């Protein structure tokens, strides 16, 4: 299949390798070979030079983290982690992202073949998107520092900010490290209320919020139904729940979590959070769309712009997948298109009333 996407499938389960390979082949993705452990995965990448690797997290001889790190050192290739839904696997999965993996897909449990079949379109879509990522160009730091000083590009300037600003961040494929980087650079003095919607399955968003909390001066937690949000705090939409803004009073907002049908084939959807924030929040609003496949967030930025919000989109050069930002830009509602390193300062610019040296 000349010119098509070629994959290496790495998993210690013969059954799972067969299921994944069949799904990819049926979706038009050529499986160059299969690997039973991380060592075989590295050898397969060097021998077959695939476009993408689907990598199991836990494997004998060499696990998925070690294999990903070695692949990035020897022949950088987009890696999609396949992770089971456990707290331990969530930790390991995020460690793999730190080592260079692009994204992850939650392995099904229970009746594996039936559930994987149900998820086959999603798996094919994400493998196809991850395969297009230029892993050599992504310049985000692996361990963002806490935001102890001025945001990137702010120099020694002192800023005064508008009162009670709310920030909504949406991202998908390649987004976790980007979100962490942006949050690490936002000073607590800005007193933002931050709503984060990252396309991520249930069981991983709690760990994701802990990682952001550790790297940011903001108090970051996974959203719960009815949770309230004040300045200097951030909520991460819980996996498999839409997060809507229910009400807003005196600089504090309250969210509602629902299992309403997916929008843009995803839940949580950025559109839901942006749309409800636009309808409810009457203080300054900022919307940010980061890397991701699909068009989620495009309708949301239109609603936010109509409500007077300022909108920022990540540029193509630093996006792992220029899908969501591109669709947002195409609406004509984006005020600034910025590389990831400039987005924190871009956010601050939208809420700054005065700058002094």
TrEMBL record:
PTMs per UniProt: Phosphorylated by CheA. Phosphorylation of the N-terminal regulatory domain activates the methylesterase activity.
Subcellular location: Cytoplasm
EC number, UniProt record: 3.1.1.61, 3.5.1.44
Amino acid composition bias (Low complexity), ranges on this chain: 141-155
CheB-type methylesterase domain span: 160-354
Keywords per UniProt: Chemotaxis, Cytoplasm, Hydrolase, Phosphoprotein
Entry-annotated residues carrying 4-aspartylphosphate: 56
Keyword hit for Oxidoreductase: no
InterPro entries: CheB-like, CheB_C, CheY-like_superfamily, Sig_transdc_resp-reg_Me-estase, Sig_transdc_resp-reg_receiver
Catalytic activity: L-glutaminyl-[protein] + H2O = L-glutamyl-[protein] + NH4(+); [protein]-L-glutamate 5-O-methyl ester + H2O = L-glutamyl-[protein] + methanol + H(+)
Active-site residues annotated for this sequence: 172, 199, 296
Transmembrane intervals: none
Domain Response regulatory residues, every copy: 6-122
Annotated segments matching region Disordered: 135-163
Keyword Hydrolase included in the entry's annotation: yes
Top-level taxon of the source organism: Archaea
One Pfam family named in its UniProt record: Response_reg
Biological role: Involved in chemotaxis. Part of a chemotaxis signal transduction system that modulates chemotaxis in response to various stimuli. Catalyzes the demethylation of specific methylglutamate residues introduced into the chemoreceptors (methyl-accepting chemotaxis proteins or MCP) by CheR. Also mediates the irreversible deamidation of specific glutamine residues to glutamic acid.
UniProt remark on domains: Contains a C-terminal catalytic domain, and an N-terminal region which modulates catalytic activity.
Family note: Belongs to the CheB family.
Protein name: Protein-glutamate methylesterase/protein-glutamine glutaminase
Source species of the chain: Haloarcula onubensis
Gene that encodes the chain: cheB
